[in-house]
Amino acid sequence: MRTVGQLLKEEREKKFYTLDEIEKSTKIRKELLEALEMGEYEKLPPQTFVQGFIKNYGKFLELDSEKLLAVFRREFSEGKNPPRILESFKNPIEKKWFKLTPPKVLGSVVLGLIIIFFGYLWFEYKFLVGSPFLEVIEPEDQLSISSSNITVSGRTDPEAKVSINDQQIQVDQNGKFAQEIKLSDNSSSITVVATSQSGKQTKVERTVFVKR
């Protein structure tokens, strides 16, 4: 008597299908299909899953699934052929890890709003309590120049006030500033201070040497 695997293989070859084509259409791994056709049940997962393979395989080949399962039950003995879970069976070809549902959408929206809310609170805290950001781009520290005139430039928070050597200067809407100053000594210290609306300050100092 022919086995269910032989029936499936004969019909597959009769219709000129390859195992790769069967795998692609049924989503059953090729090595499982080969084991099924060869009757190597020790290489297959438990009986319930094998029956599912036979139904899908038979349906694709347009065979009577009930007759195939009857043949399978006659030849298969779970005691004689203990199944084992293959690594490929643990990782099927297509497995959807995430399914979009209304509760998940709502949860994502709520989570997003919470993140935005706390981000806003952090920004407000940083703005009202924290010291302002300040970066002096030029001049570099310990710079030597031949002229007593030098441009001091940098950037800070747009709302902050900036002073250079105790003289307040203009800051544009992006927080950038640039101001030319005159140095009097051979070694001059430039102090740039950014002051937030809450009165917090950030200070950067530069030392410049003027060659006479």
Automatic annotation (TrEMBL):
InterPro entries: Bact_Cytoskel_RodZ, Ig-like_fold, Lambda_DNA-bd_dom_sf. The chain crosses the membrane at residues 105-123. The keyword Flavoprotein does not apply. Keywords: Membrane, Transmembrane, Transmembrane helix. The keyword Transmembrane helix applies. Pfam families: Glucodextran_B (PF09136), HTH_25 (PF13413). One of its GO terms (molecular function) is DNA binding. PANTHER family: CYTOSKELETON PROTEIN RODZ, PTHR34475. This is HTH cro/C1-type domain-containing protein.
